[in-house]
C-alpha cells in the first residue's frame, strides 16, 4: 500500500510539469505582445519595454520557463500588475474560501447523492425512484447561476406568501452575499452542490443496480441476511467503488463552478479573483490562480485514487 | 421452529410453478415440478441449460426476484409448507436449515469482505455469536472443508483464493449452521475435473458426518451417477423422469433421458462412427409446444404426443415418468431398442 | 498410419508472459505459460491437447497462429517457418490455419449478418471470385447445418449451438488445411455438443481437414482424436495415440485425470486417485518434475530433476510420458506415499 502511494505521488510529477508548461505558455499563446497587453493599449513604448525587461520576456523561452518554475517552487508567483502585491498574498485567504465552498458542496453532494441513489436503486421503478430521478435530471440541467439567483430570491430576499400560512410569512432566512457565517454559507453550497449531487445520485443508482444483480448478493440473501444489511453491508461498499472516482472528478468541476457561484453570491474567493484579473489583464494573478487550482485538483485526485485502492482490494497492489 | 413434526422426506415439492412475467407474457420457467428428497439422501436434478433447475432451487429458498413469481404448488420442508411462511421465518431458515451453494465460485463471494467475515456472518445471524466467537468458528469451518492454514485464510479476501478454494469457502458458509438440506447448484461446473473430484468427495463426506439431505443440480450425468441416490431429469420446466439412480442408468425410460445418455461421448469406451444425437434444440420459452414438450425432438413422437401433454405417472417403486409411451393410451410402435453405449 | 505427411511441426515452443511490477513497471517475472513444448501434427489427423485450465492449451494454439508472439521456438507449417514470416505474409498464411473459439460470439461483429461475416472472411483472404461468394455462403451454411434463410440474420438471433456452427462456417470459408478448435464445444449443452462433434467429424472427412483440438473434456477428446497430448503447467507430460493413452496411461497425472472423471456406470465402483491441492502457479513452477507437489508417488529424484519425455515400450515408441518412475508403475512396485 505504502509503495503504491509513493508510486502514485511520483506519477504526479509529469502531470505537474505539464501543468506548469501550460500555465507558463498561456502568456505566450495570447495573440499580440504580452508586455503591450499588460501595460495597456495606450501605454507609451518606453513603459512597455520596461515591463518586458522586468518580466524577462527578452530571454529565450526555455530560460524564461526555468526562471518561472524556480520562482514558483520557491513560492514566488510574481506580482500583480493591478495592485503590485505578491500574487501568493493575493490568492492567500481567497484560496481557503474557495476550498471551503467546494469542500462543503462536495460533502453535501456526496451525502444527498448517495442516499438518493441508494433509495432509488433499492426501490427500483417505484414512485420514489421516478421522483428522485426527475429531480436529479432537473438538478443536472439547471445552470447553477440561475439556481443561485432563484435561491437568493426565495430564501434571502424572501417570498411574498399569503399570511395565513403559519411560520412562512417571511422566508428570508439566509444572507444573499458574503462568506463566513452559517447563514452565508448555506445558499452558495446548495447552489454549487446540486449538480454534483444529481450526478452522484445517478451514478450511485446505476452502480447499485449493477451490484444488486451480482452473484454474491444472492449468496448473502441465501445466508438469511436481512435485506437492509444486504444493501448496506454487502452492496453499498462495492457500489461506491466507481462512485469515488466520480466524486474526485466532480470536485474538480466544482472548482470551476465556484467561479460563477462566487460571482452570484459576491463571495471574495479565487473565482472572483480570476474573473477580475482576466478583465484587468492581470496575467501573473491569472497564472497563479490556475496553477494553484490545478495543484489542488491533482492533490484531490491523488486522495481519490488512494481511497479507491483502499476500497477495491481486488486491484493488485502494483 | 414450530411443533415437532414427523416426516419421511426432508423435502417434498408438489406441482411447483414459477413464472416470469414480461409484457403481457407469462414465461413458465418451472411448470408443475414435483419431487422428493428422502432424509439424508442426495437427489440429483439433471437437464440442459434453461430447463428450470436453478429457478426450482431458488424457489425452494423463496429467492425468486422480480419479475419472477412462484405462482403455485407446495414446498414441504420437514413437513411444513415454505410457501406459507412469513419472510422473517424464511430468513431464519435460509443459511440455517437450508443452505445453498452456487455455480460460480469466482463471483459468489463478496470481493470487499474477508473470508472470515463472510463465514462468520452466518454464525452471527443464526446463532447470535460475537465477532470474535464467529471468527473462531470460521477457522474451524475452513479446517472442516480442508483449507490449509485456515488462520491465515480467514483474514484474506476472495481474490487471493483459487476457484476450488473459493468453492470450499462457499461450502463452509453453507454448512456453518449444520443445515438439514444443502442445495448445490452446479457446484463443480466451473471447476476442473481433479478439483471437481475433491469437492464432490468433500460434500459426500460432510453429508455423512452431518446427516443432511442434498439437492445436487448438475448437467453432468457422470456426477449424478456417482453422487446421487435419486434423480430427477428436467426438460423445459418439467420433471420428465424421476427414479433411483440404478434404475435410471440401467433402464432409462424417457426418450429424452435416453437421448441425453447417448449424446455424451464416454471417456472409458470408444464409440464407432457418429454419436447419436437428439435432433433440433430446446424450444424457446415463447414457442413452447402444446403437447409433450419433447415431442418436436422425440424420435417416437406420434400425433397424440404433439397435441396432448402427458401426465407424470408413478409406478409401484415410486419412480415417475412423463411420457405417453408408458401409458395405456399409447398409439405408436411399442417395441423400441433401448441401449446406451453398447 | 505411418509415413504420414507432417503438416505442423512445433519445436521447443516457449511462451513467457512478462509480469510488470515495481516502481516503473519493470518486468519483474514471467508467467511461463508454455515452457518448451514440441509436437507434430500429421495431415488429416486430429491431435488433441487436454489438461486443466491454465496449463497452457490456449496459449499454445495462439502462439502457433502468432496471435501472441511466442518467446522462442519454431513453428513450421507445411514446410514454412511461420515465425520468420512478416506480418503480411503471416496474414496470407492464416488462410491455411483457422481457429474456432469457445465463445464464437466474442469473436464476431454483433452488428453483421451471417452473410456479411462469411463474405468478409472470404474477402480478407481473397478466396473465391466475387460473384461466386454469395452462392458459397449458402453452400457453407448448408454444410454446417444451417439454412439459406438464416443468412441475413444477426448473431444474437441464434442459439449457442447455431453460433458455433457460424464460427465453423467462417473458419471453413477460406478453405483452411488446419483448424485449431479451442474448447469449441465446451460451452454447449450435451445434446448440441454431440451435434457439433458429429459435424466436425463429417467436415474432416469431406474436406480432409486436420484438427488441433483443445479441450478439457476427456470424453469428447477420446471421441474425436487420433492422438492426444496431456499438458500440465506449461509442459507436455504425456503424448500418445488415443487407444494406448486411454487404456494404458503412463503418467500419474494422466491416470489421476482419467480417474477423476465421473462415470455413468453405476455398478462399477472405481478406484479414484484424488489429487491434493491446486495446480501451482506458472510464475514459479516447482523445480524438478512440475507435478511432484501433487503426485502421490513423488520421490527425491522427482523434486530435483525434471523428467524428459520417453517411451517405455519398444513396440510403441510414439507413446511417451515424462515421469521418472513409469517402469515401477508397470511393475506395480511403487506405492503412494502416506
Ligand atoms: N430473470 C429472469 N427473467 C426471465 N426469465 C428467466 C429469468 N431467469 C430465468 N429465466 C428463464 O427461466 C428458465 C429456466 O432457467 P434456469 O432455472 O436458470 O435454467 P437452468 O438452471 O436449468 O439452466 C429459462 O428458460 C430462463 O430463460
Ligand atoms: N496474455 C497473457 N498474459 C499473462 N498471462 C497469460 C496470458 N494469457 C495466458 N496467461 C497465463 O498463462 C497460463 C496458461 O493460460 P492458457 O493457455 O489460457 O490456459 P488453458 O487454455 O490451458 O486454460 C495461465 O496461467 C494464464 O493465466
Ligand atoms: Mg442453472
Ligand atoms: Mg483455454
Largest sheet of chain A: none
Instruction: Assign a percent range to the helix content of chain A.
Output: over 70%
Mean of all residue-level pLDDT scores of chain B: 90
Assigned CATH architecture of the largest domain in chain A: Orthogonal Bundle
The structural class of chain B is: alpha/beta
Largest beta-sheet details of chain B: 8 strands, mixed
Radius of gyration of chain B: 21 Å
Count of helical segments of chain B?
Answer: 11
Number of beta strands of chain A: 0
Mean pLDDT of chain A: 84
Helix/strand-derived category of chain A reads mainly alpha
**Helicity range of chain B:** 25-40%
Distance between the termini of chain A: 9 Å
Q: Please state the overall shape of chain B, judged from the principal axes of the Cα atoms.
A: globular
Q: What is the total number of structural domains of chain A? A: 2
The CATH topology of the largest domain in chain A corresponds to MetI-like fold
| String of helices and strands of chain B | EEEHEEHEHHHHEHEHEEHHHEE
Beta-strand segment tally of chain B = 12
Cα separation of the termini of chain B: 52 Å
Keywords, please?
heterotrimer, A: 318 residues, mainly alpha, MetI-like fold, 2 domains, B: 342 residues, four-stranded antiparallel β-sheet, globular, binds magnesium ion
Description of the molecule:
Chain A is mainly α. Chain A has 2 domains: 72 residues, no CATH class; 220 residues, MetI-like fold. Helix content of chain A is 75%, strand content 0%. Chain A is built from 12 helices and no strands. In chain A, α5 crosses α8, α10 packs parallel to α11 and α10 packs antiparallel against α12. With 342 residues, chain B is of the alpha/beta class. Chain B has a domain of 70 residues. Chain B has 11 helices and 12 strands. In chain B, the strands form 2 sheets. Chain B has an 8-stranded mixed beta sheet, with helices on both faces. A 4-stranded antiparallel beta sheet of chain B has the order 2-1-4-5. In chain B, α3 crosses α4. The longest helix of chain B has 18 residues. Chain C has 338 residues and is of the alpha/beta class. Chain C folds into 2 domains: 227 residues, Rossmann fold (3-Layer(aba) Sandwich), CATH 3.40.50; 88 residues, no CATH class. Chain C has 11 helices and 11 strands. A 7-stranded mixed beta sheet of chain C has the order 6-7-8-3-9-10-11, with helices on both faces. A 4-stranded antiparallel beta sheet of chain C has the order 2-1-4-5. In chain C, a hairpin with a 2-residue loop joins β9 and β10. Chains in contact: A-B, A-C, B-C. The interface between B and C is large, with 47 and 43 residues. One adenosine-5'-diphosphate binds next to β2 and α1 of chain B. One magnesium ion binds next to α1 of chain C.
